[in-house]
Amino acid sequence: MSDAAGSLTHSRVLKIAFPIVLANATVPILGLVDTGVVGQLGQAAPIGAVGIGAIILTGIYWLFGFLRMGTTGMVAQALGAGDRTEVVALLVRALIIGFGMGLCIVAVQAPLIWGAFRVSPASNEVEDMARQYMQIRIWSAPATIALYGITGWLIAQERTRAVLVLQLWMNGLNIGLDLWFVLGLGWGVPGVAFATFLAEWSGLALGLWLCRPAFAGRMWRNWRVVFDRTRLRAMALVNGDIMIRSLLLQAIFISFLFFGAGFGDVTLAANQILVQFLEIIATMLDGFAFAASSLVGQAMGARERIALRRSVVLSSLWGLICVAGLAVAFWLFGEVIIDWLTTSDEVRREARVYLGYVIIAPLLGFAAFMLDGIFIGATRTKDMRNMMILSFIVYAASVAVLMPIYGNHGLWVALLISFVARGVTLAWRYPALEARAG
Question: Which of 85, 112, 128, 284 reaches 20 to 30 Å from 371, CA-CA?
Fold first, then answer.
């Protein structure tokens, strides 16, 4: 066994994965506090305004999530190859791209917000408040998107505790400012927006401080390397492939909810409740998928096939343990979780009908989640894009065949089939990935 492979241990995988899992777990808490503080105003409109405004902005920012994933894979490979200059250059490129994209969003905010409310109409009162929220918070777009690059850079270097510190700082400050601005100063919906605005810019400042070793020397100002056309093109191709893949994945989940709406409000609500179970799966597996990205990327950069295989085995083993635990937890406590999430008896009954699908979802989706992380680390993003296109076609065909016959059951089966299709198609391309390691 090579030295690189020998250094890959269960402990190392867990040290990478657990901080990401904990960081992800703090995100829903912030959403609850945002909702809770405006809920104290005693009106429905502020709750709806914060909800719809946050969803729209999150959806816009999510389009740039490729910056985190792409940066993770490319930095990990540069580390494995011992190319410290490129490691630093990738951070600078990510910051420039993130900040630039954020400024573009700020520049086109008027038509962007107008278009968002044409797609997601709301009452005049809610729309007015949501506009106030978005017009304040959108000014932190450069910070938010640049942070994707910082997070990916830190994950690639296995500095996931720093990622956890960053997330705890931002969410903790946001919560504190929420309470002060809304309940203390009575600023209402704008207070929630200002709290997030300040938290996101302070997060960027902290993120840059956490990356300070990269700025200690002169490498970060090596503009010839930073703006090297070949490397910029490679980065653009990687990020473009991931963006297409992510858009298609999002299209599957959005269409799933839209199709479910055709079965009535109760079924739509039940599906929305059960989708929260899928969010839990994603939150838990994200840590192990990013552990795989970091370790696989470093093995690819070092051209160590044995280390690559061991990275895949160890991270996947812990991912499998995780999903097995989730499946058992959903089986034992699924009905209790449903009851926590809704007080409507008819929605509870409807959700129980389809609970079995989310019980088996962790096991059926395991391969797709883990292979995503593995392929990101190897920067085999063209394969990710192409296999996602195939999986989307399989999903669309499954919906067309199963939903007219089996209704919402058919819709759920089609969604699970898409999980399996992603896993099978990526597994088919795995041998080519491993062959690249030398």
Answer: 85
Instruction: Yes or no: say if 285 and 320 are a contact pair by the CB < 8 Å rule.
Output: no
* Confidence band of 241 (pLDDT split at 50, 70, 90): very high
Instruction: Write the burial class of residue 228 (CB in 10 Å: 0-12 exposed, 13-18 middle, 19+ buried).
Output: middle
Report which DSSP code applies to 105: H
pLDDT tens digits, one per residue of 340-349:
777 778 888 9
Q: Where in the chain are the domains?
A: 8-227, 238-438
Residue with tokens 């899992």: 21
Close Cβ partners of 89 (under 8 Å, ≥ 6 residues apart): 219, 220, 222, 225, 226, 228, 231
Task: Please list, in sequence order, all residues whose beta carbon lies within 8 angstroms of the beta carbon of residue 48, skipping any fewer than 6 positions away.
Answer: 122, 123, 126, 129, 130
Nearest to 71 by CA among 177, 180, 153: 153
Q: Which of 49, 143, 57 is nearest to 100 (CA)?
A: 143
Give the C-alpha separation, 207 to 169, whole Å: 10
Helix residue spans in 342-407 (DSSP H): 345-353, 355-377, 381-406
Query: What residues have CB less than 8 Å from 305, skipping those under 6 apart?
Result: 299, 434, 437, 438
First CA to last CA distance, the chain: 15
Q: CB–CB of 290/160 below 8 Å? A: yes
The residue among 214, 33, 63, 58 whose CA lies nearest residue 140 is: 58
**Over the chain, what is the mean pLDDT?**
88
Both tokens assigned to 24: 């992800």
DSSP 8-class letter at 179 = I
